[in-house]
Amino acid sequence: MAPAGKKSDSARKAAEAVAQKALQDKVALVGAIGEAQAAVEELGEEKVELERRHEEERDALEGKITDAEQRVRGAYDTAVAGGWTTRDLADMGINSPRKKRKQRRSPASTTQQDEATPQPANPQPTPDPELQPAHQY
Q1: Which residues form a coiled coil (predicted)?
Q2: What is the average pLDDT value for the chain, to the nearest integer?
Q3: Verdict on whether the full-model pTM lies above 0.70
Q4: For residues 2 and 58, which has the higher predicted lDDT (pLDDT)?
Q5: Distance (Å, rounded) from C-alpha 133 to C-alpha 137?
């Protein structure tokens, strides 16, 4: 008869080896979660940086547009001061440039929310009471 200790030790080691393999497989699954989470964080940081650069570029472009619009207004005013009438310029297809109101930029979330809000297919304008006749016949 073989001593019970050797057979028992061998069975124990085999069972532990199977358990270790199962644990390694489970640990690898958790490691994959960690890798995926790190990728999400990295991509999120890239997105924030891209949005920051986009905002800077947009602001720079808006500044250039504003400068160009001011040049148009200045050139138009110079043409009128030089003898052209607004009618002459309009007849040539050059309309009076209007000063634009400063538009407040809304956050992207507001814009997305507004786009998601359903709009009526044919919105009816509200009549201006000042444009209505004083008396109806």
Answers
A1: 33-71
A2: 82
A3: no
A4: 58
A5: 10
Task: Name, in order, each residue with C-beta under 8 angstroms of 88's C-beta and a sequence gap of 6 or more.
Answer: none
Q: In the chain, what's the furthest Cα-to-Cα distance? A: 125
Please provide the DSSP assignment of 85-124 as one string.
-HHHHHHTT-PPPPPPPPPPPPPHHHHHHHHHS---SSPP
- Decide which of 107 and 46 is more confident: 46
Residue 72, C-beta contacts closer than 8 angstroms, at least 6 positions apart: 97
Q: What percent of the chain has pLDDT over 70?
A: 69
Pick from 63, 94, 64: nearest CA to 78: 94
CB 97 within 8 A of CB 69: yes
